[in-house]
Amino acid sequence: MNKKYTQLIYKIIFSPFTQIVLCTLLLFVEILSIYFKILVLCVFSLQLLRYYFRKTAFNSTHSFWYLIFFVPILYFFLCSKIFEVYQINFYIKIFLFIIPIVYSFYYYSKRNPSTGEKIFLNLICYYFIPFFMALNFSFDFSKPVIKEFVVIDKQKNSFGSFNTEYSEYTFYELKVVPKIIYFKPFFQKELSENDYKSMLLKSAKIRSNNLVNLKGFDYELINTQSLFNIKTQKFIYIITLKEYVEPTIFKVNTGIYRKFNKGDKIDFEKHKGLFGIEWYYFR
Q1: Which of 33, 101, 112, 252 is 20 to 30 A from 184 via CA?
Q2: pTM beyond 0.70, yes or no
C-alpha cells in the first residue's frame, strides 16, 4: 500500500476525533448490549495501539489541548455511564474522577513529556479505571441473583454546596419492598378494648400513623372498625392488617428513576462481576 495512504489511515484511526466519536457513541448505547462491549474494546485497544505505534494525528499543541481539555470531559461522561451499574458512594465517584486529572496536571507541570509519554499518560490515567470497571460487567457471564420488588415510593433529594460558588447535587431514590410481601392479602384481627389500647400504646413508639405493633410484630394498619357488645357493655375492634417490612432504598440514575413509577414491578439483579466486583442492574 502507498505510504501516503498508510499515513492517512493511521491519522484517521488514531485521531483524537476518532476517540471522541467512539466515546460519544458509547454514551448512547444500551449498557449491556453487544455494541457497548465492542465499543469498550475499541476505545481502549486504540489507545494501546496508538502507544505501540507512537502515532498521533496532530501536532503537540493539538495533542496538549486534547489531553487537558477533551479527555477529562470524556472521562467524566464515561465514568458516569459505566458507574450506573455500581452502587458506589457519590464521594468515591468524585475521588475516582479527580485523581487522574490532578495527576495529569501535576505531570505536565513537572515534565515536558514526549509523544509516547503523553499517549501512555492518557491511556493509564483516563482509560484504565473505566475500562477495568466496564470489563467487570460487560464480560461477566455468571448467573445473577434476582430479587423481585415493587416500587412503593420514589423521591429525589437535592443538597447544595458552597465552595467557591453554589452548586447543587441531586440524588434519585426508589423505595421498594419484596414482591411477595407487597401482594400478600390483608387479614383481619378481632381485639378487645384492652388489647386495642395496648396495641396503640406500643405503636406510639413506632412514630408512624399507619403502623401498629401487635405481639412484637409490625403491621400496616389498613382499616379499623369498632363494634359495641351489648352483653359485655364493651367495645370490640376489628382491624384490617397487612404484613410490613422496612422498605429498601435504591440510589439510581435519572434513567431508572424515570422508567419506574409507584406500583411498578422491578427486578433487581445482583452480579458477581468478572473481577469479583459486584454490580447491579434493574429490569
Answers
A1: 252
A2: no
